[in-house]
Design brief:
Elements lengths: L1 H22 L5 H23 L10 H25 L2 H8 L2 H13 L5 H18 L8 H31 L1
Length: 174
Amino acid sequence: MNFLIYFFCMLVWGLNFIAVKIQGDSLPLEVALLYRSVIALILFSILLSFLMKKIDLKSVNWFTVIGFSLCNFTISYLLLYYGTFYSTAAIVTLIFSMKAILTPIFISLIFKKKIPNRIYWGEFIGILSVFIILFPDLNNLTSKFIIGVIMALAGTIITSIGDVIIVITILIRF
């Protein structure tokens, strides 16, 4: 069942990025994001109706659903997408890959647990790789490019916060 959910998620969000390419600049990004989010909600509701015969809406933790959705699929998406307008998609993708480092760090801060050294090494290598890629252009950075990098960093941090919301909810529930 996990494979089916993962596959469905990749299908929905993969189609989302194809829709962005087809759409171009015909709609404001915020409106297009709303349309795609509603379509994703409908598709995931259909999937859930097949997987579960009855969903008890009273047992749903709406804070988690709304918090995770806002952080991972709305606010961060807008920031990352706008980040590509100001810098490059490659830099935004590289910065977003640091989510794999930020999420464990945020979780360890919330639960006051020691971070394994491999996380620090991963963070160091990730930041170093971003610096190495940017190094040749450090003298020629425009304010527009820096705004894009800041938006990508903010989007990445917000996505990690969404991941932490899920972890907190799971740990509280069990």
